[in-house]
Amino acid sequence: MDREQFRAAAHSAIDDIVDYFDTVPERRVLPAVDPGYLRPLIPENPPADPEEWSQIQEDVDTKIKPGLTHWQSPNFMAYYPASVTYPSILGEMYSAAFTAPAFNWLCSPACTEMETIVMDWVAKALALPECFLSTSENRGGGVIQNSASDAIATIIVAARERRVRELVLAKGLKEATPEYENCKMEVQPRLVAIASDQTHSSAAKGALIAGTRFRSVTARLEDNMEMTGPRLREVLEQCDKDGLVPYHLSLTMGTTNTCSVDRFADIKAVLQEKPEWQRIWVHVDAAYAGAALVADEWQYIAKDFAEGVDSFNMNMHKWLLVNFDASVLYVRNRFDLTNALDITPTYLRNPYSDMGTVIDYRNWSISLGRRFRALKIWFVMRSYGLNGMKAHIRKGIDLGNLFTELVRSRSDLFEIVTKTSFCLTVLRVKNPQSPSNGANGSSDGVSLCKPDEVADGLTKKVYELINSRGEIFITSTIVDGVYVIRVVSSNPLAEE
Ligand code: PLP
């Protein structure tokens, strides 16, 4: 493809993409294809001779689009949304054109410096405490990761290294000696990462990757599925009894099941009770709901992160208008990351890195090469402005509340199972034989639901019927033994 062919092909692709967005509301959200549908449609071997772009593009239309689940459809109300906007697509185009895998500052100073600037912009937009800014005295800062799972695995490894180092140094051993290394290996099997049973599975996976144990704190419907201080204390005390060392705690702002928010203040108070518990690395996973922090009325939540929180992550690609992937991770102390991850062979050395005056993001993440993702975040923030971003969040919140009101107005049929939180409504179909399963009188109209086979069966039937029609896509889950339907109203194209 030469420059003129590229120009024509790109114009045609852009036209097709715009048409796709225009028509996506009319498309069936779930594809009507069976597993294996694609193989018979694609030649067994790659073409020997070049093909025309028009042929390739036609195949996107006839072979790919019919097999897509349309995440951008306003009828996609499953999981959490994956947002995309025109400015973020433009950012991807430039990033692809530059393809500069800037692992060190020298590899492309604009990529590194734009990432640092944009991460500070995002931190300010979310009203994160000063300690997470790159300009903070405590040397905090942010880095863009592929996904929340990558971010979480990365900080769990950093947390392990920090705690092991503290424990070994406390024994009076000198670093980089055989005794130090041996002691590290003795200490590590006692380490435990802790999260609630509502925490995303990436926390357990992070502990697995870090080669440590994992224990979970039970969450209950009576606590709105939030992690509470007393339930955490029970797990910490059990670890003490078992001779284990908790080193990482994952808290969530917006769990995947019900979008519950863990009780940060109570939990931090519990961690103050013992000196060893104060050494636990506290992480806040706000992968989805963290986006709401751009709106002033939610920023009070971020005040809880000013003290006692070591790191925070949020996926702009879920609800904040940037396409996948744009997962932002902030740490209070960048040296916690770089001490764990900086391995510098001669071929990566250069005078700027050696002087220590520049950021080399390869030491803030697992991968070496990295995409220029800051560009699309910069484009989106400039194209929308903070006011546009706030309006987007508020629209979703209003729709979620409206949907919940509609469900509640049919309390003869449905029960709201947990408090509606950041556009997620969690409901079940009532057991008609069980009138006692009504609202518990709380102002938010939440029923204190108990496991109930009839309600489970009816809810599952309704859920399967809706998805089988393919017009609307929703997901279901089980919380505290209760089968529920989740409906998410934060899709950017969703309308009343
Ligand atoms: N954390 C929470 C709360 C999530 O809801 C999810 C995914 O939905 C993740 C982490 C994992 O996100 P990712 O796909 O970016 O790894």
Automatic annotation (TrEMBL):
User: Taxonomically, what lineage is the organism?
Assistant: Eukaryota, Fungi, Dikarya, Ascomycota, Pezizomycotina
Q: Which domain of life is it from?
A: Eukaryota
Q: Is Lyase there in the keyword field? A: yes
Cofactor(s) required for function per UniProt: pyridoxal 5'-phosphate
Q: What is this protein called?
A: 3-beta hydroxysteroid dehydrogenase/isomerase
Please provide the record's keywords in A-Z order.
Decarboxylase, Lyase, Pyridoxal phosphate
- GO molecular function terms attached to this record: carboxy-lyase activity; pyridoxal phosphate binding
Supply the source organism for this entry: Penicillium alfredii
Example GO biological process: amino acid metabolic process
Q: Which family does it belong to?
A: Belongs to the group II decarboxylase family.
Can you cite an annotated GO cellular component?
cytoplasm
N6-(pyridoxal phosphate)lysine PTM positions read: K318
Keyword Lyase part of the UniProt annotation: yes
